[in-house]
Amino acid sequence: MTESSGPSSAPPPPPGGGIAPGSPAYRRANLALFLAGFATFSLLYCVQPLLPELVAEFGVSPAHSSLALSLTTSLLAVAILCAAALSEGFGRRGLMFGSLIGAATLNLAAALAPSWSLLLVLRALEGLALGGVPAVAMAYLAEEIEPRGLGRAMGLYIGGTALGGMLGRVITGHLVEAFSWRVAVGGIGLAGLVAAIGFLLLLPPSRNFTPRRGFDPHFHLAAWGRHLASPALRLLFATGFLAMGTFVALFNYIGFRLTAPPYEFSQGTLGMIFVVYVFGIASSWAAGALIDRFGRRLVLPGAAVATGLGVALTLPGGLVPMLAGLILFTLGFFLTHAIASGWVGRVAVGTKGHAASLYLLAYYVGSSVVGSTAGWFWTAGGWTAIALFLLALLGLELLVALRLRAVTAP
Asked: Transmembrane ranges (predicted)?
């Protein structure tokens, strides 16, 4: 892929005409994908603030408790590739709806799991089910939205994921304090079912997508191979891996720090920590305006620096600098993700669903690998060891962002 296919080259208008910003269809598509992002992330991450509860309930170690999340994201990463291929033959809308319904049902079943092993199995299956949403949603937006409205639409979708991640964690924190972790997980499952129905009713059918007949493995392998041959896309995939890995690792273990002395937060208070996701929603929505004014090549390294400064602020023991650090970290992460995910759709030439699936594969593998690996650092050196580990990864993310400036056009 040449530099001319970088961010300064907008993709040509879809052959059937894209959905125009400001139109009723644009508002419906944005709201539908917002609900899809909300449901996906609330279902996926509702167990994160419950890890200390799972340790107490099932007698597992903190590192093992993270499997309730890491297994889900690992299977999600694998399923994303399959879903991107399937969506080429079966369409975008139906696959996303089926994935949301299946995942919500499995979350309800996980709330009733009598054993740790069965809970992990159900959470792993939930990851498989959710694979039909993220890459397909990104492909739908890239195909159906006019290029001038794509940045805002992608930012709104990412904002939905931020809101889902926030409410999933905050609601479970309060429900577990008032009732139990089972009621908390079951409540998120019911919310996912409602969001799935709203998604189906709102999302306009695809106008610029033609399903492929049959299943041709060579076509899919060739498509993935073409995208992996692009230096710019490889760097964007690495950005997704590092950004999501550090994000999940920090929020996996901040709960263990804050529920221990001297803080001794209750589950309800701990859940409120995730209100910092409001700043992630804001940064996702602001991404389009920042890109228009300063360009992706400048904003992305700045987001990496902000994320690193956020981690550094969590090192002192005071709650005020820690909260400030969490806010800055969250702002930087969601800005990074909104820029990188939207950039993939613009750089990729053809088969945008395959490009999106590779980005999200790296994104969720980072969540699983770094999220679990950080447990070793927690055991070895507590929060200081985790913070230094994350700062090293974010330093690498900054280098990747600077390299992107060299391989893409201004």
From this structure: 31-51, 63-87, 94-114, 120-142, 154-171, 183-203, 235-256, 268-291, 298-316, 322-344, 356-377, 383-404
